[in-house]
Design goal:
The protein is mostly helical. The protein is built from four helices and two strands. 54% of the residues lie in helices and 2% in strands. Helix 3 packs across helix 4. It starts with 37 loop residues before the first strand and ends in a 6-residue tail after the last helix.
Length: 186
């Protein structure tokens, strides 16, 4: 089995002081730019230079150019800020008016839809109340019809009983009256 070696520094660790930042931010310090300026001229409509947002490696702007040409930040009339150029291109590419119109139309349609939904909920509640009232009326009507039927059955039995009693007690007068006023047939 191989022996393991342990590394131990020979010199003792020395503490060293670190510089402390001042609590106040100095405005004299140079702030690094969040983006670099690249020296290139804007493309024209008739030029053959690639006009897309991503430069091509085979286009004339980078092919055969020296690093000093691309990295020059000397400014001048040909210097173009890429962020400004991209912002302008995107600003010109998107027309906000149709988007604003469609957003306004969507809000209007949403409001109309919400109003119709509230109206529909109110109408459904009204229909439920009417249905409940109608069911109550139907139940009351059925109850009244059953009572009327029960009363009619009782009356029919009573009249039939009285007719039978009159026929037994007064047979000749009953037959004369029955001939003159016959009973209705069912």
């Amino acid at each position: 089995m191989p022996a393991t070696t342990i590394y131990r520094p020979t010199a003792p660790a020395v503490a060293f002081s670190t510089p402390v930042k001042s609590p106040y931010y100095t405005t004299a310090a140079v702030k690094p730019a969040p983006y670099n300026r690249i020296s290139m001229s804007p493309t024209t409509a008739g030029s053959s230079v690639n006009s897309s947002a991503v430069p091509s490696l085979t286009s004339g702007s980078y092919a055969g150019s020296s690093p000093g040409d691309r990295d020059s930040s000397s400014g001048g009339a040909g210097s173009v800020d890429l962020i400004d150029m991209m912002t302008d291109r995107l600003g010109n590419a998107v027309n906000p008016l149709p988007l604003d119109r469609s957003l306004a139309r969507q809000a209007q349609t949403s409001g109309e839809l919400n109003a119709k939904q509230r109206e529909l909920a109110e109408l459904q509640a009204l229909a439920q109340r009417r249905l409940k009232g109608t069911r109550t009326n139907i139940a009351d009507g059925m109850k009244a019809a059953k009572e009327v039927k029960r009363d009619l059955n009782w009356t029919q039995k009573r009249v039939s009983g009285l007719n039978a009693q009159a026929a037994r007690k007064y047979p000749s007068a009953y037959q004369t009256a029955n001939a003159r006023y016959p009973a209705p047939e069912d």
